[in-house]
Amino acid sequence: MKTDYLLLVLGMGIVTYLPRWVPLIFLSRRRLPEWLRQWLDFIPAAVLSALILPALVTTGEPRHLTVFQPALLVSMPTLIFAWKTRSLAGTVIIGMALFWVAGMFFS
Amino acid sequence: MWNPPYSSYLKEGMVAAWPICLGYVPIGLAFGVLAHNAGLAPWEIGLMSLFVYAGSSQFIAVSMISNGAAVIPIILTTFTVNLRHLLMSSSLAVYLQRLGVGRLSLYAYGVTDESFALNMSRFRDGDWDWRKALTLNHTANLAWIVSTIIGGYGGQFIPAGAFGIDYALPAMFICLLVFQIRGRLFAFVAVLSGLLAVAFSLLFPGNAYIVMASVTAATLGVFLQKGCEKGRKCTEES
Q1: Could you tell me the residue ranges of all domains in chain A?
Q2: pLDDT of B238 over the 70 cut
Q3: Interface confidence (ipTM) of the complex
Q4: Which residues of A touch B175 (CB under 8 A)?
Q5: Do B77 and A8 meet the contact criterion of CB atoms below 8 Å apart?
Q6: Of B76, B109, B222, the CB nearest to A17
Q7: What pTM, to 2 d.p., does this model score?
């Protein structure tokens, strides 16, 4: 069991590390064509949005749409605050405070 | 040698990591509790957090362990869940030119959704370099490892959801997304990617929706950009 667990953790570590490592090694040492630079420039906005939106409007396993939940409600003022202030610290604190208050009303 | 510049790199990197640490603590504690319930000792929990360092795949692995899954299926699942980091490392590579293989390899270890989002935003602003980014990565890493181990010792005594702490990471992501919107085309890519992600997440199990939606939206963005260059300019640099 112990060696099994070690093997498991080692295997998980290797397959997690490789996708993190390969692009850094192969892309950071060559001049990238313009279209690829452009594509990579869009990736952060695309990835962040793909991470956030499903978390705000879906729940459960298997996932289904749940539009009325505090996480989505709170995301609107949080987004506006971030847009207006451009402050990461402020946005995190406001988001947490609003979510905390919203949780009191929802439960 | 401990030159002043180095300690200031360390300080800036550590300070910048706070929203991630704040978000990792409750998730790490929750993970530790679940892993403990699945029969893992605190040192085993710490070992997984150290070797794997990827939250969602660790949660999935622990639930598979408690269902008696074999080693290979767990490793394969971990691989697919964490494949999205390919995109993030590719995007980060633009800012990590001229680094040696050793430093890049160390950097690769710390690439998570959260560190990627925060470091990318800092790199774009300028006034950020690999030393600070690496410090940020390892500060977040330490917060993750320590909080999962504490959870493994019985993190149940910490009240769940206190102070809205569960919203620390979503709020950070929302803000960093706002920072990434640097023109109409970026807004289009973000909205499209989000909508596609919702649709794909409802259609397909697992988290392949992140990669599918991001790749589709970014690719369409490039095509639109090409169209724009012929016509009018759609991205204004701010």
Answers
A1: 1-30, 31-106
A2: no
A3: 0.92
A4: 78, 82, 87-88, 91-92, 95
A5: no
A6: B109
A7: 0.86
